[in-house]
Amino acid sequence: MAMRVAPLAAQGLRCQWGLWRILGTFLLYSLRLG
């Protein structure tokens, strides 16, 4: 997984967008479980 994250980190904004997207999905799953 780190192998895929490395090139994304070099792109900057796209990396941040990906992180926000992951956080969003995580929150949605937590709300569904809750």
From TrEMBL:
This is Uncharacterized protein.
